[in-house]
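thought: fold this chain, then report.
action: predict
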Amino acid sequence: MTTNVDAGELGITFSDVARSKLVEVLTGYPEEVAGLRLKITGRTSEGFEHVLTIVEKGIEPEDDATVQYPDFLLYVEGEHIEDLRGTNVHYEFKGPNVSGLEFHNPNPVWRDPLAQEIQRIFDEQVNPQIAAHGGFVQLLELRGKRAYIEMGGGCQGCGMANVTLKQGIEVAVKEALPEIEELVDVTDHQSGDNPYYQPSKK
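observation:
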């Protein structure tokens, strides 16, 4: 069930340029629109990765908070409300077929010091190495002594992904942080588009 929240409570703001552009997009959308949805899609050492999508009537997300603005209704991803608090959305034209939306989020990428350290290891040690194969890994969540991760790029769908995880990434993390017992890969490897290595079919 969605929860109505006052705009001032979450402090999510839109620049005049962004609001004008979004209204233009919503006005030209061919289906009936319920609103827009702001969510977090990833985290890096540089900050959060965001996406703003159109919500069509009849498929409104159930667990989001909703904020009514003069021009549209905003759905705020329920799972990451605290991480989205205070975000400013701006728009800058960057060329045709390129999203010009810019998100300025003041929140720390991770509040847990252990998660912060895992992120640092990924950014400074792991990702620079697997980037040569077009791959990357990101931390999704830390639950107790288990870190849940997702692999992307050339690592998604790669037949060597588990070897990379267990003999490379997990070793690096455990050496620096022995309190971490396991890295759990939740990647959908079946949908990888361009794996670096594909096992031969028998």
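thought: worth noting. Residues 194-202 have pLDDT under 50 and may be disordered.
final: tokens above.
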